Amino acid sequence: MSDGIPPTSRQKVHGLLAGAIGSGLLVVLLVGVMWVLEVVDYVGDGYLDRYGIIAHEPDGLPGIFFAPFLHAGFPHLMANSLPLLILGFLAAVRGLGKFLGASLIIILVSGVGVWVTSPPDSVTLGASGLVFGYFGYVVARGLFDRRLLDIVLGVIVAALYWSILWGALPGETGISWQGHLFGLIGGVLAAWVLRRRRPPVTRVSTASIE
């Protein structure tokens, strides 16, 4: 017996559900890895903290790829976990390939920005750059892709999380506003780089008949 839903619409719904489930599992796994690493770091008396981004030091460059997964204690990790789960899920729901590409761009832009602009020899840890990056990515994706779903998600995220933008400005001591700012920039850049490419419009010339 038919349920009245066209096959193409049913396939789209199934695709969205499968994408949502996959996105949710991936982001939960990502945050889970961070918690495991923080437990290891706690047991090791902060041993992993040395793998953060050490500003201006060539030896600190590998920390660009490690720092987003490390935190300066459980309160720091707890503060990042919920927004990372929500914004990460919304960033991933439109495709895991683009999500991974966006994450890489955000990590690189945020990490290099921190390495260049932070005080010399300072060590930066945490997923805040990813949080700000996913915020920028989800909001800017709606502007660049112009899909209805992306626009709606972008507006909702902007309305709910706009206050985090204050964190991208110099403020509280010990908080890496550089990581926040460059993470945000990385998210907007990722949305532009990974935007939907539209086919070129072909112009049809019409000849006039006299």
Structure in words:
The termini are far apart. Mean pLDDT is 85; it is low at 204-210. Strands 1-2 form a two-stranded antiparallel sheet. 62% of the residues lie in helices and 2% in strands. The chain has helices at 7-43, 63-66, 74-92, 96-117, 128-145, 148-161, 177-193, and strands at residues 53-54, 123-124. The protein is mainly alpha-helical and 210 residues long. It contains 7 helices and 2 strands. It has a single domain, classed as Rhomboid-like (Rhomboid-like fold). Keywords: Hydrolase, Membrane, Protease, Transmembrane, Transmembrane helix. It is found in: Membrane. This is Rhomboid family intramembrane serine protease.
What would the keywords be for this entry?
210 residues, mainly alpha, Rhomboid-like fold, two-stranded antiparallel ribbon, 2% strand, disordered C terminus
The top level CATH class name:
Mainly Alpha
CA radius of gyration = 21 Å
Shape: globular
- Determine the CATH superfamily: Rhomboid-like
Please state roughly what percent of the residues sit in beta strands, choosing from under 5%, 5-15%, 15-25%, 25-35%, 35-45% or over 45%. Answer: under 5%
Query: What is the domain tally?
Result: 1
From the coordinates shown, what is the CATH architecture? Up-down Bundle
Major beta-sheet overview: 2 strands, antiparallel
**How many distinct beta strands?**
2
List the helices and strands in order: HEHHHEHHH
> Strands of the biggest beta sheet: in what spatial order?
1-2
Summed over residues and divided by their number, the pLDDT gives a mean of 85
Helix content percent band: 55-70%
- Please, how many helices? 7
Distance between the termini: 60 Å
